[in-house]
Specification:
The protein is an alpha/beta fold and 590 residues long. It has 19 helices and 8 strands. The longest helix has 60 residues, at 293-352.
Length: 590
C-alpha cells in the first residue's frame, strides 16, 4: 500500500517527538553539569554549557516542536553596516530606527506577516525575551525616528511588528551589532543569531574583511547555516573588484554556497530609505524562499541539523572536561585518604612499640605497682602471687587513676600530633593543585579542627571506659571476683592498658628493662585473675577498640577536606558522552 501524505506527516510528527525527548534528556544533563573544580578545561566548558543550553532553548527544541513554523531570518552585522536601513528597504517602509548614533538597534525588532503573528507572540523561540507588540505609524516617519528609541532597559524584550510587506512564511529580525561597544548588545546579537534559521549578514565595502564578522561567519560555516551575505554601500566603480575579493574569501572559508548580494552606495530619500531597486534581488530571494514550503523546510532542516551537531560537539568537550574534573576529584580524595591512613598507622604503631610507656606513664605505673618485694614475690612463686598481691593492695588502693590519666595524656598528644601532620600534608598537597587550591580558598586547614583536642580526650576516655567494662564483664564469673574486683577494676584496667602498649621496640637501654619488667607485672597480674587466653583476648579487643576510636577521630578530621569536595559534586562525564552520541546520531538522521 502506498503511503499517503497524512501517513508521512504522522511519521514526521512521531520522529520529531522522539527527537524532542532525546534533546530534553540532553538538556537536563547539561543543566545539571556545573564543572565546579578549577581544572584547565573547565572555564571554556562552562561557556559551552551556557551556549548549548541557549541554543537548545532558543532554537533547536522549539524548531523540532514546530517544523512548519515560519523561518526566522536574523539580520546581523557590524556597527554602522546599515542593517536597519536594509530592513526598512526590504519592507519598503521605515519600521526600524536607522541613524548615525550608535547603537541604533538595542531592542531587537521582529517583523512578520500579520497572519504569522501566532508563531511569535508566545515564547516558542527566545523564551527569555519578553514580548512587546509594536505598531507601524499610519503615515511614514523618517527612519531616524521610526521604531523604539534605544533604551538600556529594553534589551530583555523583543518588539513584534506585523506588516503586510513581510512575506508570509518568513520573519526578519533586526539584531544589535555583533561588535557593539556594549557587552549586552554583543551577547544579545549572538543569542539572536543562534536562534536563526538563516542569517542575512550585512557588511560594507570598507569592513568586509574585519575579524569579528568573520569569526561569526566561520561559526555559521561550521554549523552549516544558510547564509546570505549583503555587501552594503559599495561604490559602483569598485563593485566588481570588491565582490570578487569577498567571494574568494567566502570560497576559501567554506562559505562558497552563501548567497552574495551587493547594495550599491546610494543617497537616501527624505525618509532615510534606500532606492527600492538596490535591495530588489535580496527581496526577491527572500520572497521566493517564503513562498516555497519545500525550500523553507530544507533550510530549516539544514540549520537544525547543523545546530544539533554543534551542540553534540560542544557536549563532547563538556564531557571531557567533566572527566577531567572527576579525575582531579579522585586524585584530591586519594591524597586526603592516604595522609589520614598514614596518620592512623603512625598512631597505632605508637601504641605497639612501647613508646607510650616512657616518661609520665612509666612513672605513674611504677608508683602504682611499686618495686622490691612485689617483684621478688613474682619471681619466687607466681602461684602464691594471688594472696601476696591481695595483701599488697588491701591497704589504701594505689592511684591507678593516675596511670589512666597519664596514658590519656600521652595518647592524646600522639593523636593530636599525627592528626595535625596529616592535615598539614593534605593542605599542602591540595594547594599544589589548582583544583584543590580553589576548593580551599583562603581557609587554612593545615591544623586540626576546632575542639579536636577535646574530642580526642573524650574518645580516649570512652576507650578506657569500654576497657573497664570488659574487665568487669570478664571477672563476673571468677571466684576471685570479690577479692580482686572490689579493689582493682581501675588497677586491672591500668594493667591491661600497659599490656596493650607493652611491645618494647623503639625503647633502649634502661627503658627496655623497666618497661619490659612493668609489662610483665601487668600481664602476670591479669593472667593470675583471668587466665592467659582471656588476657590475650582482652588485649586484642582493647587494641581493636582503640583502632576504632582513632579511626573515627581521623574520619571526622578528614571530612573537613572531603566535605568540600563532596559539596562541589563533580560529575564523571559518562552520561554527557552518552547524550552527545545520541545527539550526533540525531543530527545525522535529521
Amino acid at each position: 500500500m502506498r503511503a499517503t501524505p497524512s501517513d508521512h506527516a504522522a511519521a514526521l510528527s512521531q520522529g520529531a517527538a522522539a527527537a524532542v525527548d532525546i534533546l530534553e534528556a540532553a538538556r537536563t544533563e547539561l543543566a545539571d553539569t556545573t564543572l565546579p573544580l578549577a581544572v584547565p578545561e573547565a572555564q571554556e566548558a562552562r561557556h559551552w554549557i551556557r551556549e548549548s543550553l541557549a541554543q537548545l532553548d532558543d532554537y533547536v527544541i522549539p524548531r523540532y516542536r514546530s517544523l512548519d513554523a515560519p523561518l526566522l531570518a536574523v539580520v546581523g552585522g557590524s556597527t554602522g553596516a546599515g542593517k536597519s536601513t536594509l530592513v526598512n528597504a526590504l519592507v519598503g517602509y521605515p519600521v526600524t530606527r536607522a541613524g548615525a548614533i550608535r547603537p541604533t538597534t538595542r531592542q531587537p525588532i521582529l517583523l512578520h506577516h500579520p497572519q504569522d503573528a501566532g508563531w511569535f507572540e508566545g515564547h516558542r523561540i527566545l523564551p527569555s525575551l519578553e514580548r512587546i507588540r509594536g505598531n507601524v505609524s499610519a503615515s511614514p516617519v523618517p527612519a531616524n525616528q521610526a521604531g523604539a528609541a534605544p533604551d538600556a532597559q529594553a534589551i530583555t524584550s523583543l518588539v513584534l511588528v506585523g506588516h503586510h510587506h513581510v512575506p508570509q512564511g518568513i520573519a526578519l529580525l533586526d539584531a544589535p551589532d555583533v561588535d557593539s561597544i556594549s557587552d549586552d548588545n554583543r551577547r544579545l546579537a549572538g543569542q539572536l543569531l543562534a536562534a536563526a534559521d538563516l542569517w542575512v549578514f550585512v557588511t560594507t565595502a570598507n569592513r568586509y574583511a574585519d575579524a569579528v564578522p568573520w569569526r561569526l561567519l566561520l561559526d555559521a560555516a561550521s554549523r552549516d547555516i544558510t547564509v546570505a551575505v549583503v555587501l552594503d554601500r559599495v561604490p559602483p566603480a569598485a563593485e566588481n573588484e570588491v565582490r570578487t575579493d569577498l567571494q574568494s574569501m567566502l570560497d576559501r572559508q567554506g562559505l562558497g554556497a552563501a548567497k552574495l548580494f551587493v547594495v550599491p552606495e546610494s543617497p537616501l530619500d527624505d525618509l532615510g530609505m534606500l532606492p527600492e531597486e538596490s535591495v530588489a534581488p535580496l527581496r526577491h530571494w527572500l520572497g521566493a524562499l517564503a513562498a516555497n514550503a519545500g525550500g523553507r523546510a530544507d533550510v530549516a532542516r539544514r540549520t537544525l541539523n547543523g545546530a544539533v551537531n554543534a551542540v553534540s560537539i560542544r557536549m563532547e568537550g563538556i564531557a571531557a572536561a567533566a572527566a577531567a574534573q572527576d579525575l582531579a576529584a579522585r586524585e584530591l580524595e586519594s591524597s586526603c585518604l592516604h595522609e589520614y591512613e598514614q596518620a592512623l598507622i603512625r598512631i597505632l604503631d605508637a601504641t605497639k612499640d612501647g613508646a607510650l610507656l616512657r616518661g609520665e606513664v612509666l612513672a605513674r605505673w611504677q608508683d602504682f605497682v611499686g618495686t622490691g618485694e612485689f617483684f621478688r614475690a613474682l619471681e619466687q612463686n607466681i602461684g602464691r602471687m594471688r594472696d601476696r598481691v591481695g595483701a599488697f593492695f588491701r591497704g589504701e588502693p594505689a592511684p591507678a587513676v593516675k596511670v589512666e590519666t597519664a596514658i590519656e595524656t600521652g595518647l592524646q598528644a600522639v593523636i593530636l600530633d599525627e592528626a595535625a601532620t596529616a592535615a598539614e600534608n593534605v593542605d599542602r598537597r591540595w594547594r599544589s593543585d589548582t583544583a584543590g587550591r580553589h576548593l580551599l580558598g583562603a581557609d587554612d586547614l593545615s591544623g586540626t579542627g576546632n575542639g579536636f583536642d577535646a574530642k580526642a580526650a573524650a574518645a580516649i576516655r570512652s576507650w578506657q571506659e569500654g576497657l573497664m567494662e570488659m574487665i568487669r564483664t570478664q571477672g563476673q564469673g571468677k571466684r576471685t571476683q570479690a577479692r580482686w574486683l572490689s579493689f582493682g577494676v581501675n588497677g586491672l584496667g591500668a594493667a591491661l592498658m600497659v599490656v596493650v602498649f607493652s611491645m618494647t621496640a623503639g625503647l633502649s637501654g634502661l627503658e627496655i628493662g623497666i618497661a619490659g619488667g612493668t609489662a610483665v607485672v601487668g600481664q602476670k597480674l591479669l593472667e593470675a585473675v583471668f587466665g592467659e587466653d582471656a588476657v590475650r583476648r582482652l588485649a586484642q579487643q582493647a587494641r581493636d577498640d582503640l583502632h576504632t576510636q582513632c579511626q573515627r577521630l581521623l574520619d571526622d578530621e578528614k571530612e573537613r577536606f572531603l566535605s568540600r569536595l563532596a559539596a562541589a559534586h563533580p560529575r564523571s562525564g559518562t552520561e554527557l558522552f552518552r547524550h552527545a552520541k545520541a545527539l550526533r546520531s540525531l543530527a545525522g538522521a535529521a
